[in-house]
Specification:
It is built from 6 helices and 8 strands, in the order βββαβααβαββαβα. With 223 residues, it is α/β, with parallel strands linked by helices.
Length: 223
């Protein structure tokens, strides 16, 4: 359904990614999809394909440059080696610019590690028009989230030990301080409740979060 494409980062370097288009044409709204810590695997490609079925073009930048793993320890190592600032301001911004060359509106959505990056993108990628984070948020010192100027939506798990409810509460307080246009939803679920290949997949929570996500994207990205 999709293909590998190469696009330019703002600094001129090349980055590759998984690109999937919808039947509604190459001028459909764009969505940059950001991987979990596992890499650009089949599961995240499936997420991109799902988004195209809702009428978008999707691009998943390959943040690990071809590396993919099934092992949590290796995934943690790969994530630890990732320069989050570079990923947000170069790979992800380049992906947004690539999609926006053909359309007026482009959003960003990320999961786990990608959720952290989607919020960083909301702060630093001025071309983005909306951002969605599933169970991921950056440390306070990484970005001033009160400065976000685009609509942002978050889906968080109340039983999450990676991104705790108290961290979510702090994020929401920052949003309120900055009068950010935001929606935050909390679920009685574990971290990564939306990953159908994982141990903590929660079909009911995932279904509800997806409905809310698609409603949000339709409101802010479609004419």
């Amino acid at each position: 359904m999709g293909k590998t494409v190469t696009f330019k980062r703002p600094d001129g370097q090349a980055c590759t990614g998984y690109y999937a288009a919808t039947g509604s044409g190459e001028d459909a709204p764009g969505m940059v999809v950001i991987q979990e810590w596992w890499g650009l695997n089949e599961q995240i490609k499936g997420v991109a394909n799902r988004i195209t079925e809702a009428g978008y073009r999707a691009l998943v930048p390959d943040l690990y440059r071809g590396k993919v793993t099934l092992e949590a320890a290796e995934a943690e190592h790969l994530m630890g080696d990732l320069d989050f600032s570079d990923a947000a301001t170069q790979d992800i911004r380049g992906a947004v610019q690539y999609l926006k060359s053909n359309t007026r509106k482009t959003g960003v959505i990320g999961f786990c590690m990608g959720g952290v990056l989607s919020i960083l993108a909301a702060v630093y990628v001025k071309e983005a028009d909306a951002a969605v984070s599933w169970y991921g948020l950056p440390p306070e010192e990484a970005a001033d989230t009160s400065t976000i100027k685009i609509p942002v939506q978050g889906h968080f798990a109340l039983k999450d030990s990676f991104f705790t409810p108290s961290q979510v509460n702090t994020l929401e307080a920052r949003f309120k301080t900055g009068q950010v246009d935001y929606e935050i939803y909390r679920y009685q679920a574990d971290h990564a409740f939306g990953n159908e290949t994982g141990d903590h997949y929660d079909p009911a929570a995932a279904r509800l979060a997806w409905q809310r996500t698609l409603d949000f994207l339709k409101k802010h990205l479609k004419p």
